[in-house]
Write a structure and sequence with these properties.
4-stranded antiparallel beta sheet; Alpha-Beta Plaits; globular
């Protein structure tokens, strides 16, 4: 089961989160996306402490798709240096993980 990841990022607005989630799922880089928010974040940025509201995206994918997913997020994200992090899914129901594997599989070449 170590072949599956939950990838997270965040955006400033709900609309940005929805669009980023849509683009990732349509491209089959992730099987699905959950958008949570607004959440309050506390952080250091450019040497200064800050807080703010963000919309968190949680994306489920196969580990083989991570590099493409990360590249897509970095290319389409509204921020210059967004969080893109992944944690391994160490357990999950067989049916759910089969769905992730199928839904995040590249489309066959035509």
């Amino acid at each position: 089961m170590a072949d599956f990841l939950q990838v997270s990022t965040a955006t400033e607005t709900r609309e940005q989160a929805v669009e980023l989630a849509r683009s990732v799922v349509v491209e089959r880089l992730a099987a699905g996306a959950q958008i949570v928010g607004p959440v309050v974040s506390a952080f250091w940025h450019e040497g200064e402490f800050g807080t703010g509201e963000e919309w968190q995206l949680l994306l489920k994918t196969h580990a083989d798709r991570y590099a493409e997913l990360e590249a897509h997020l970095l290319a389409h994200h509204p921020w210059k240096n967004p969080e893109v992090s992944a944690v391994r899914i160490v357990a999950g129901s067989d049916a759910y993980l089969r769905w992730v594997a199928t839904a995040a599989a590249p489309l066959p070449a035509e």
